[in-house]
């Protein structure tokens, strides 16, 4: 016996109804798939942006690391130069103390009473010599008025001339020594002043370097 078959029109209607039911059943699933695809696209976009930000941040960190390394190297060189300058300043300070002692000694020497007394004695010798010459001539004339005054005073004149020459030589030596001491004093004073200026310059450079290099580091910290 043949199986029962519906008319073709009814079969087509039933097939259309089945397809419609299937579409109604798959529509929520397709909607969920579409939603998941949209979320996946958003996630990929966010992930790409985060990756780009991470690369940019990594580049900035690398630049900061290099800058910090250069700054540390520069700071180390500055410290080494300052340490060398400090050592040199200490050496110069010792030299300054020696120079200061020499300056004080020369000041005492230039103001020594013996120098002034020697000059005064030389001047006094000159004056005494002229007085002695005059008194000797007068006395010889009174004692032997009948004799020639030039013959009477010739020996005294020669003696006085010798005394005058010796006094002049002594005065010249003292003046030369005083001039040399004053010149040495001026040279030492100039050297002392130059060393002091250099020492102050090194101290100023050290302060500026600390302000430039150390303070910004503390600010970043």
From TrEMBL:
<keyword id="KW-1133">Transmembrane helix</keyword>
<feature type="region of interest" description="Disordered">
    <location>
        <begin position="80"/>
        <end position="101"/>
    </location>
</feature>
<protein>
    <submittedName>
        <fullName>Coiled-coil domain containing protein 136</fullName>
    </submittedName>
</protein>
<feature type="transmembrane region" description="Helical">
    <location>
        <begin position="198"/>
        <end position="218"/>
    </location>
</feature>
<keyword id="KW-0472">Membrane</keyword>
<feature type="compositionally biased region" description="Basic and acidic residues">
    <location>
        <begin position="90"/>
        <end position="101"/>
    </location>
</feature>
<keyword id="KW-0812">Transmembrane</keyword>
């Amino acid at each position: 016996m043949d199986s029962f078959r519906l008319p073709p029109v009814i079969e087509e209607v039933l097939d259309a109804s089945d397809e419609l039911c299937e579409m109604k059943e798959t529509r929520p699933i397709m909607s969920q798939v579409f939603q998941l695809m949209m979320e996946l696209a958003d996630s990929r976009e966010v992930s790409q942006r985060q990756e780009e930000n991470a690369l940019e941040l990594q580049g900035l960190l690398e630049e900061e690391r290099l800058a910090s390394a250069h700054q540390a190297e520069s700071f180390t060189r500055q410290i080494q130069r300052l340490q060398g300058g400090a050592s040199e300043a200490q050496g110069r300070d010792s030299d300054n103390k020696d120079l200061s002692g020499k300056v004080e000694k020369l000041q005492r020497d230039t103001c020594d009473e013996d120098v002034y007394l020697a000059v005064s004695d030389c001047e006094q010798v000159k004056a005494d010599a002229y007085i002695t010459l005059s008194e000797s001539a007068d006395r010889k004339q009174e004692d032997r008025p009948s004799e020639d005054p030039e013959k009477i005073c010739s020996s005294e004149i020669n003696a006085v001339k010798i005394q005058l020459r010796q006094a002049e030589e002594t005065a010249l030596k003292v003046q030369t020594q005083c001039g040399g001491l004053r010149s040495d004093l001026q040279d030492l004073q100039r050297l002392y002043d130059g060393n002091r200026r250099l020492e102050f310059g090194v101290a100023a450079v050290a302060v500026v370097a600390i302000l430039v290099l150390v303070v910004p580091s503390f600010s970043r910290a």
